[in-house]
Amino acid sequence: MNRRQALKAVLAASAGASLWRSATALGQEAGSAGSAIYLHPSKGADTNPGSKESPLRTLVAAARQVNESKGTGAITIILAEGVYAVGETALFKPAGRTFTRDKRLTIRAEVLPDDADWHPGRMPTLIHTMPLSPDWNGRPDPFGGVAYGMLIETSCVTVQGLKILGMPVVEHPKSGVIQRVYPIGRNGRDLNDLEITQCLFAGDEVTNPNHLGVLANGSGIVVDHCIFYHLKQPIVYWSGGTKGHAMRHCLVYGAYGCGIWTSGIANDFEFRNNIVANSHYIWISQGTRSARAEAGPGGGGPNSDAREAVNYRVIDSLFTGNKKFTGSGGGPALNFRDTDPAFLELVGSKRADDPLELEMDQTKRNYLHPKEGSQAAQIGAGLFTMH
User: Fold this and answer.
1) Residue 248 in contact with residue 197, Cβ under 8 Å?
2) What residues form DSSP beta bridges with 370?
3) Domain ranges of the chain
4) Which of 13, 26, 203, 289 measures 20 to 30 Å from 175, CA to CA?
5) 125: closest CA among 92, 154, 165?
């Protein structure tokens, strides 16, 4: 290497270090106005500061900035349209920053479904490509491999406007093995306020099985205006006895496991204006009569004897074209058994046998929504909050 080449290498290294210091400074910026971190799948680089002019490339890099930040201000991570390969878990677990209901961590698309210039092709698309881990939820995985896309280990978080695909694996490569992906997870039972809104979760058993869209412990899990298309299971509300949960204006279509899974969460669960269609089971409930309260808000701790009869109201919703109604059981192997649906009270809701017809014209704004003009479309399930 000659002198000119050596000088060029030193300058390049210095520039890279400068960009890294800029990124760290942005992540540590505090204040009530909050800050924004931008991502772009083709123009971005994880050595960039994360500004709109110099965006990051991956959610992992954005999570690193969030985790290094200090203070109480809001942070918004903004994803430009395009395809993002999720090659490792994006863990959001800041030690020095606290989010609140009004000053949140938001992970969102740059253009949202209610925006005038939105169309289905503008959704940032996440596909999971990381290696499978032999550990699950802090212990060895009994089924042979699991991957988390986002692990959100902090309270007061919104995920909005993303298209989230599964993982290109064979889900059942041999007997007893179930390779699976959890795109959004939360393990902390003491956490609160996780909102998933206007997101499209999609999968295919052959090309990219999407095992379970949202697997979350803790309280205050709100899933709103989302579509779950051909997942095994859309969502598990996992911590028994916890409160403040809701599922509103969501469409579940073609779930080959179940449309919703509740693990003995409290009776204040709000379930309204949802459609579960063309699926195997509609509802799996662990503990249809009672659930031992787990640690966290609304619970009495893992050794508590507090029990509550579980009864949920199903308001202004539609169940149609499904094989089975309610069941119980557990595990990725879908070892379900039929149960009495008496724990569900249908209020202004309907059960039918007809399969649901979706809009399959990709050029239309309501692609993958119930056909326009149908009775199902009047329920308001889907990505749009303004009807």
Assistant:
1) no
2) 358
3) 37-379
4) 203
5) 165
Q: Which residue has the higher pLDDT, 34 or 153?
A: 153
| pLDDT of res. 339 | 94
Using alpha carbons, select from 29, 106, 24 the residue that is nearest to residue 73.
29
Instruction: Give the chain as a 3 state SS string.
Output: CCHHHHHHHHHHHHHHHHHHHHHHHHHHCCCCCCEEEEECCCCCCCCCCCCCCCCECCHHHHHHHHHHCCECCCEEEEECCCEEEECCCEEECCCCECCCCCCCEEEEECCCCCCCCCCHHHCCEEEECCCCECEECCEECCCCCEEEEEEECCCCEEEECCEEECCCCCCCCCCCCCCEEEEEEECCCCCEEEEEECCEEECECCCECCCEEEEECCEEEEEECCEEECCCEEEEECCCCCCCCEEECCEEECCCCEEEEECCCCCCCEEECCEEECCCEEEEECCCCCCCCCCCCCCCCCCCCCCCCCCEEEECCEEECCCEEEEECCCCCCCCEECCHHHEEEECCEEECCCCCECCCCCCCCCCCECCCCCHHHHCCCCCCCC
Please tell me the predicted confidence (pLDDT) of residue 308.
Answer: 64
The pLDDT value recorded for residue 333 is: 85
Choose among 193, 142, 153, 165: nearest CA to 330. Answer: 142
Residue pLDDT, tens place only, 317-370? 999 999 999 999 877 888 899 999 999 999 999 999 999 999 999 999 999 999
pLDDT grade, residue 309 (50/70/90)?
confident
| Cα 26 to Cα 304: distance, rounded to the nearest angstrom | 44
Q: Are 192 and 154 in contact (CB under 8 A)?
A: no
The architecture in CATH of the region 37-379 reads 3 Solenoid (2.160)
∠ Cα 283 330 253 (to 5°) = 35
Sign of the four-CA dihedral 75, 63, 238, 385: positive
